[in-house]
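Q: What would this complex look like in 3D?
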Amino acid sequence: MSQIVIKDRIPREELLASGHLACPGCGGSLAMRLVLKALGPRTMITLPAFCWTLLSGPAPRSALGVRHLHMAPGTTAATASGIRAALDALGDTETTVLAWSDIGGTSDAGLQALSGAAERNEDILYVCHEDEAGMNTGIQCSPATPWDAGTTTAPTGAPRFHPRKDLIGILAAHRIPYAASSTVAHPVDLIEKVQKARAIRGTRFLLILAPCPPGWGVSSEETIDLARQAVRTRVFPLFEVENGQRWRFTTDHPGDPVEPYLRRQGRFRHLTPEQVRRIQSEVDARWETLKRSVESGS
Amino acid sequence: MRDDQAGGDIQRGAPSLTSRSGSRKCARPIYQDMVAPCNAACPVGADVEGAMNLLREGRVVEARDLLLRENPMPAVTGRVCDHPCQTACNRAFFDDAVNIHAVERMLGDLEPEVHAPVPARTRKEKVAVVGSGPAGLACAYHLARLGYAVDVFEAEPEPGGALRYGIPEYHLPREVLAREIQRIRSQGVGIHCGVRVGGDLSWKELESHDAIFLASGARLNRPLELAGQDPADVRPGLEFLREARAGERSTVGRRVIVVGGTDTAVDCARTALRLGADPVVICQGTRADLSASTEAFDEAIREGVRFEFQVWPVAVQTSEHAEQEEAIEAIRVMYVENEGDRPRTRLMGVECVRMRAVEAGPSGERRSLPIQGSNFLLPADTLLTALGEEPDLGFLPSEITRKGYVVKVDEFGRTNHPGFFAGGDITGEARTVAHSLGSGKRAAIGIDRYLREKAGEPVAETGPKALRYGGTGNFSITRWRWDDPVHRSGEVNEVVPFERLNLAHFKSVPGKPDRHRSFEERRSSFAEANLGLTPNEALAEARRCFNCGVCNQCELCLIFCPDIAIQRHPDGHGFTHSEQYCKGCGICVAECPRGAMVMMKEDR
Amino acid sequence: MKQVITGDQAVSWGVRLARAEVVAACPNTPQAQIVEELSELRASGDLKAHLIQVESEQSAMAACIGASSAGARTFTATSAQGFALTHEGLHRAAGARLPIVMAGISRTLAPGWTVGTNQDVSLLQRDAGWIQIHCESNQEVLDSTIQAFKLAEAVSLPVMVILDAVQFSNDREPVDIPEPAEVDAFLPGRATRRKLDANDGALTPPALCMEMRLRQQEAMAEALTALDTLDEEWGQRFGRRYGAIESYQTEGAELVLVVSGTVAPTARHVVDQLRAKGEQVGLVKVRLFRPFPATAMRKALAGIPHVAVLDCNLSPGHSGIFAEEIRAALYDLEPGPRPVFHGYIVGPGGHDVRPETIIDCIALTREAAKNPTVCEREDIWVGVRS
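A: Here is my prediction, written as C-alpha cells for the whole assembly.
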C-alpha cells in the first residue's frame, strides 16, 4: 500500500522497559530500544557516563533488559574490548558486545579508546547515538557540536564556526569491516543495519542521529520529524561503508534547503543569514565529497 | 557478600517498571477516530473510508457489504455520480485523489451472493413508495432492511425512473441497472410497475399503508419559447433519450443543437453523436456555470461534441421563411447531404445571440444579458431542449405543502402532512442520482422514527447532526440503527483536515484513471464508454487511500514511542496507552499518518 | 624448578601458572617485558589468556573492568605514568568488587624522568580500595602474583602486587618456579563466575553508596585473615611464608628499622652485621600495606625504644608515607610501650640505598635518641647530594 508499512519489519521483542527517566521525546532512548530489538537478548552493553547513566533509572532499578555495565567516560571501547576477551575466554562467541556512547564519549574523550579498538579490529559493535552535544550535563559545546549551535559553554554571543568531526570518515580510515549511519526516524533502516552489523566479526560502528528536544530547543513531539528532515536536507546522510572502501547510500536524499531545518531549532535561532548560507554550502560540499566516495567505491 | 553481589541488595533484573515515569506529563495522547472527508462529502452518505480500509486488507466482500449498508446502488453511483468524494479526498493534496468511483463500481459489479439472506420482517407496519427512481428505491431498500414491508408503485412499465429513462446506455448499461434493482428486490421489496398512483391506484387505497414516501421525480420539461417556433421544431431532450434508450430508431437529424447546460443536455448530445449527428450544445452561462458533471463534459468534448458558451437561441429558421434566402442557401450549402434515410424537418437553423455575464441586484446573482447586435446563425435540423425538469405535483393530495414548484420537506423528508414523506427530485434538492439516493435514506430514517413514535416505542435521540458524517455530510443509517462493524476509538464527528496527516509515511503513487473505450468505438456504439478499472487496479487504488482519521493499526505510534508506553490491545483492535509510563511527548500524535490521534491537556 | 629470572619474568610466570584468562596491558618501561613475555607465551600456546594490547593504561584498566565483570580471571601490569593513568579505573574496580590482579612497578613519577625506584606512584593508590602487597625479591613476586588471584577471589577485592623498578624489572635472581599441577591444587578455576547483570555504577542513592563503602571496608578486614590463611597454605605447599609483616631480629632490640621493597634485603644484611657486633638492632619488613596491618604492627613494635622508618617515597607537605601510617598506628599504644619515632627518606628516584645509607640512618637515630625531645622534622633526608 502506499503507506510505507513497517510494522512487520520491526522485531516485536522489547528489551527496553518502560519507566526509564528519559526526557519526553528522547531520541536516545528510542535509539536504544530499536538497537536492542535488532540485537536480541544475547547482548552485553557497556555505557560511559552520559544521559544513560541516569536514564536507566536509579539503582537498583534498570530499564535495560540485557546485561550492562556503566563505566567512566572515555573508556567505552576499551571496556567493550575487555568484555569481549572475557566472553571469548569463557567460550561464548555468540553474545554481542555492544559499546554504547553519546557523541561526547565517542568523539572527544572516547576517541582514543575507540581508535585503539578499531585498530585492533576488536569484535565489538560500537553505537554512537548522536545527540550533537553532551546532553546530560547541561549541554556543553563539544567538538561535535555543529556550526555555532547555542550551548551553555559556548553561548551564542561568541559563535565559533567549526564543522563537526566526521566520525564515520575517521572510522572508515581505520578500515573497519562496517560503519554506517542511521536515525531514529528510519527504524527499518536502523534495524537492518544493526542486524547486518551483528553478523559481521570485527569492529563495527554505527552512528545514529537521535535528536534531543531540550538540547535542540524543540518541542518533544518533533524528534522523529527532525531526524527525517536532517536526512532530507543532507545534513545527516544515511550511508554505509564496508572495509573503509565501499561506500553506499541507503536512502534518497532530496536535498531540501537547510534553513528551515535550522530555524525550527532553538539552538540555531541566532544564526545570521550569512551563517546559514555558509552552513548550506558546507552541507553541499560534504555531500559532494560523500557522493564521490560512493561513486568511486561502488 | 561474595562473587555475585555488588554493594548492597541490588535486585537482580528488577526493571524500572515500578517507576511512575509518566507522572509529570502535561498532556496525554488519545486515540480519536475522525470522519474522513470522502464520507462527509458523499451525497449518499456511504462509509467510503471504511470500505477502503477493508479493501486494503483484501476483504472485498466485506467492503462491498459495508457500502451496501448505506448505498444500495454502488454500481450505478460508481458510473453516474460526479464523485464529490474525490474532490474532497485528502490525497489530492499529495498526488492524485483516490479513484473512489472506480472502486465503488468494481464493488457494485461483483457477483451478488446467491443466497443472500432476506431481512426479517420485524415490523408490522407497511410503507408505500411512489416512484421507483433512485430516491424511491433507496427508501424502499433501507426500510426493508429496517424490517418493514414495502411496496413500490411505478407508473412506467419498468422500474428505475431517471436511471432507466434519463441516463443513456453508454453511461449506465441496462443490465447493470437490472442487477441493482434485483439487489433491491432481493431485500423483500415489492415493485409494482404500470401502476399510477392517483390514477390506477387512489390515495384512499394507499391509506392502508402506515406511511407514504413520494418520489415521483421531475419529468416536466421546462419549455423553450423561440420566435417562429412550431411545437414540432423543438423536442424535449428527455423524450429523445427515452426513445434512444428504448431502441427506437431515433428521429434525430445531422445538425443537432441541444439547448441547456445540464447532464441531460450533455447526454442528448453524446447520444445524438452516436446516432451519427454532429451536435452542438448551447449554454447561456460560462463553462463554470455548467451544471453537468465535469466528467461528462470532458468526455463529450473528447468525443467531438461542440459547446457554445454564453450563447442563447432567440429564433428558429425554417424552410418556410421567405426572408433570408441567402442565409438559408448558405445553410443548404453548409449542409452536407448524406446518404440514407435522414428525415427532413422544416427546421434549417437557429438564430442565436451572444450573452454577457452581469452582476445583478443586491443578491449578487449573476445573470446573462444579450449583447446587442451579436446575432448569428447556427445551422440545425434538430433542436433539443434540456433546461431542467420540474416535478409534476398535480397528482398529489392537496394537503401537501408546496414550496414553489417542489414539495417542502425537512431533513428527514417529512412533509407537513403526517405520514407523508418525500424525497428526490420532487423536493427540489440537488438534482443528482446520489443526492436522490441520499434523500431516500433520510426519509427511511424519518419514516422509521415516525412509525416507532406512533407505536409508542422508545426512539433513539440521535439528531440530524449526529447522524450526518462529519456533521455536514449525509445521514448514516448505521449510526441510526446498528452497531458500527468498523472498530472506532472515541469517534469524533468532525472531518480530518489535510494538515492533520503526516505524509512522510506515504510514498507518492499516481492515481489510476478510468479506462475508456477509444473515441472511434464510442462514436458509433452505445456500448459502455467508461470501462472503469480492473479489479486489481481498483484494489491498488483502494490501497492508496490514506484512511483519514481512522486507525488502521499501522503501529507507527507503538514503534516510535520512546517509553514503550503503547501496547497492542489484547482483543486485537487498537492500542492501549499506559497512564503510568506515557510522558506526553506527543511523538505518536505527530507521527500518526492519518490524524487518528490527538493530544489532550492534562488537568494539573 | 629453579630458574634465574627477572622480576618481570617472575610476574609472567605467575600470570601463566594462575591461568589468567584475560590480560589487558599497554607496554611501559620497565613493565614492557611483562607484556612481551606474555605475548610470547601466548604465541607459543603456553598462555591461554586473551591478550589485549591497549593503547593506554586508562583503557587497560577499563578493559580489565569489562573482562572481570564478564567473569574472566583478569590481569594487567603497569608502572609510573601509566600507573597514574589507571587511577580512576582503580576506584571503579574496587568499588565494583572485581578480583582483578595488577602488577604495579614503583617507578618514579615524572618529572624527574628516570626509571629508578620511587614508591610514590604505588602508594598514591592506597586509597583506591585495592589490596596492596610489596615484594622484596623475584621469588616473592612470583609467589605473591599467584597468591594475589586467590586472595582477590576470596574477598572480591582487586589486588596490586608492587615491585620496585629496575631492580625487579632488570635484575635476575634465582627463583623456584612451582609446577603447574601444584599451583592448580592451590588455585583452582573459579567455582562461581561473576555475571554482568547487576546495575553496577548507575545513579546510586546516598544510602546505597554508604552501604557499598561499608561492605568494601568489611572485605578489607576479611582480607587480613584471608592473607594469613593463604600464607599458611602456601607455606605448607611450597615451604615459603611471608606474612603481612615480617619481624627480623626484633627480640630485645633497642632500635628497629621498618623497611619495604628492595630496601629490605639490604637492611637485613645490615642488621645481621650489627647484631654480629653485638648491637641490638632489628627490622620489620612491611609486605601488606592495604589493608594496613595495624594490629600486627603494634604488636611487633610495642616496647621497642626506637623505630626508624625508611621511606623511599614522600607525601609532599607531610612525611614519608609509611612513616605517617605507622606513626598513626603506634599512637594507640600506651606511652610506655610506644616507641620514639624516626622517619627517614632514602633513595627516591632510584638513588641507591646502600648499607652505608642504612647505617647512617641508624646513627642519626642514636644521635637523636640522646636528646629525648620531640623531633622537629618528621622527615630526615639521608643521602641527599648537597
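A: To summarize the key features: Chain C touches chain A at residues 21-22, 24, 48-50, 52-56, 58-72, 74, 88-89, 92, 193, 195-197, 199-205, 208 (CB under 8 Å). The mean pLDDT of chain C is 89.
Q: Very helpful, thank you.
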